[in-house]
Amino acid sequence: MSTRAESTIMFREAAQAPEAVRAQLAANAAQITRLAERLRATPPRAVVTCARGSSDHAATFARYLIETHLGLLTSSAAPSVSSVYATATDLAGTLMLTISQSGASPDLLAVVGQARKAGAHIVALVNAEESPLAQLADELLPLHAGPERSVAATKSFLASIVQLVAAWSNDRALAAALESAPQLLTRAWQLDWNALVTRLTAANNLYVIGRGLGLGVAQEAALKLKETSGLHAEAVSAAELRHGPMALVRTGFPLLVFSQNDESRPGIVQLAAELSAQGADVLLAGTHLAHTTELPTEAAHPVIEPLLFAQSFYRAANALALARGHDPDAPPHLRKVTETL
Known about the structure:
- The structure is a single chain.
- By secondary structure, this protein is of the alpha/beta class.
- The protein contains 15 helices and 10 strands.
- Helix 2 (about 10-15) packs antiparallel against helix 15 (about 305-325) and helix 13 (about 215-230) runs parallel beside helix 15 (about 305-325).
């Protein structure tokens, strides 16, 4: 990538993700252990996530991770229920995971305040440790991402949820894989995704496809393409594409497809083959398939692989924004803290 690309705030902050994850693992280890012991001793009846933007994509990832590793019903809160309709939901005996970089959005604060009154135990994963959201939490797990000045948040998305679920589920293989994540993130950052830049510089629309643990990364990639490149990108589950969205796919239509090495891969590979056969321009991360453009990836534990996809993507997204004549640090009409009411 060019020197110009390396000069952006987005580039510099995304490049810091390995150190952010390393810091989180060390700083939160003892607290995570205590919290995991408490959750095993007194399991919640359900988990509710609360987040916006990139943090909500981390929450999507959390949902799949919690349900597949703990078998525990997990659902996303609709902030407008509290902030607009002022309606209280029965959350007695639940765990609310609220994820935020700034910890300052009024609608999230309204949800958490109502949830506390309704009996939820609040665990906040927040980068701004002195924020109002952090003060409301029963348990604060700092993201340790350091200052984030780029409007397009990157580090806080990567440094969030896996450590808690690994400890809570007592999954030693996942915990061991997580220890290697900083090194793998460093390698993922160096991978050449210039094919993405070349193929999407003149694009107007695309789908970003994922499934299961990869869906949150697909959502995150679509958001970043909108924010930084002014590119209309829509995240779609691989399972949902045939239920209508496939009708838009024409010859040359670009699709960015994420395929982590788990039970979802065979279906994603079959879908990518069908799309390619229809003449779509398929950019495929995570596996090999003839007649598609392969984006190089680092092999890892299937829970860690989507995080590595995101890291490689961030670097390419920064370069793509510049190639399209955009400033990734100053997306139009956006600000760092979005104060949704």
